[in-house]
Amino acid sequence: MCAESATSDERTHTLLIAPDSFKGTFSAGDVAAMIADGAGPGINADRCPLADGGEGTLDVLLGALGGERIERETHDPLGRPIVAELGLLGGTAIVEVAAASGLCLLAPGELDAEGASSTGTGELISAAVRAGAREILLAAGGSATSDGGLGAIEALGAAGGLRGAQLTVLCDVTTPFELAADLYGPQKGADEAAVGRLTARLHAAAERLPRDPRAMPMGGAAGGLSGGLWAAFGARLVRGAPFVMDAVGFGARLGRAGAVVTGEGRLDAQTLEGKVVWEVARRGRRASVPVHVLAGSCALRAPELEALGVASVREAGTPELLRSAAAEIDVA
Predict the structure, then answer these.
(1) Which residue, 92, 141, 311, 133, is CA-closest to 241?
(2) pLDDT tens digits for 112-136?
(3) What are 189-234's pLDDT values in tens digits?
(4) Are 232 and 210 in contact (CB under 8 A)?
(5) Distance between CA atoms of residues 266 and 22, nearest Å
(6) d(Cα 142, Cα 54) in Å, to the nearest integer?
(7) How many angstroms separate the CA atoms of 169 and 104, rounded?
(8) DSSP code of 140?
(9) What is the C-alpha separation between 151 and 118, in angstroms, rounded?
(10) Which terminus has fewer CB within 10 Å in the chain: N or C?
(11) What class is the 57-241 domain?
(12) Which residues of 157-196 are buried (b: 16+ CB within 10 A; e: fewer)?
């Protein structure tokens, strides 16, 4: 059914459930299922899990579009051998930076922003090329690295490069290349002195790369990996949340909905930089469909919440709270 053909009654009774993952707690699919379980009687719950190019992007895209998972040997941020998944959908491969170079692969005591390398991500991209992919979607969020992508560039170059494949990086931030360490280094284990050294290293890398990635929006995703791949291999950089939403048909599904519920683990300043909740809210306002937000916690102040422009915000970080909060949402 096209958005234009949905009847008023169908819209009234359809709740579009479009959350991101609650990082480290629940996948986007899990959150969508919990919210659907709590939706009121007579409500058509349209589950539409989303991602912004970070962890969970592989699950969301394969869940919506089909495809298969394959495992390949690679290396984690500290160079240890691991096995990681990537997705194949026809001639398209889906690779997550977090699968080989992610913070999720390191224990708190292992964080090493200066020593962590994106080599494993380059190896996974090479594995996708060898598997016959003509297009590679690289979800850039969740990295433990700040190496400007030099590890990935070296590994990919040693394996023969992209061999004609198109590389698209799904970016979860708009930060430029040279600010990657300053903004995200501390969460990867860098103190103030280390941030200074990492920033100097990024500037030095920019001067050695075939093109200068500095000042380019989204070039700082995954510790500068996105900018490095743009400079070395002509990668296309796109905002992850809109890309994923378009891929899963969010626009048509929004046209059939009387209300939308979205959410993430924590609402904070990064939410307003184009994350899933921000993008869902923006599209909901444009379509005049009310958007409700469920979050594990909320660090936004009243003016920021007003700028988000949603119908309601509820804190709900457990399955029970997610279900009960969903029951309170009016889809009329």
Answers:
(1) 141
(2) 999 999 999 999 999 999 999 999 9
(3) 999 999 999 999 999 999 999 999 999 999 999 999 999 999 999 9
(4) yes
(5) 8
(6) 6
(7) 20
(8) -
(9) 5
(10) C
(11) alpha beta
(12) eebebbeebebbbbbbbebbbbbbbbebbeebbbeeebbe
Helix (H, G, I), strand (E, B) or coil at 155: helix
Q: In what order do the strands lie in the sheet with 166-171?
A: 68-75, 81-89, 92-96, 135-139, 166-171, 236-239
CB distance 94 to 62 below 8 Å: yes
How many other C-beta atoms lie within 10 A of the C-beta of residue 104?
13
CATH of 3-50+253-327, one of 3.40.50.10350, 3.40.50.300, 2.60.40.3950, 3.30.420.60: 3.40.50.10350
Q: How confident is the model at residue 6 (pLDDT cuts 50, 70, 90)?
A: low
DSSP labels for 93-127? EEEEHHHHHBGGGS-GGG--TTT---HHHHHHHHH
DSSP string for 252-316: HHHTT-SEEEEEEEEESGGGGGT-HHHHHHHHHHHHT--EEEEEEEE---HHHHHHHT-SEEEE-
pLDDT for 105:
97
Measured CA to CA in angstroms, residue 89 lies from 55, 92, 93 at distances of: 18, 5, 6
Q: Going by DSSP bridges, is the β-strand pair 14-17/92-96 parallel, antiparallel, or unpaired?
A: unpaired
Domain with CATH 3.40.50.10350 in the chain: 3-50+253-327
**Tens-digit pLDDT profile for residues 257-311:** 999 999 999 999 888 888 999 999 999 999 999 999 999 999 999 999 999 999 9
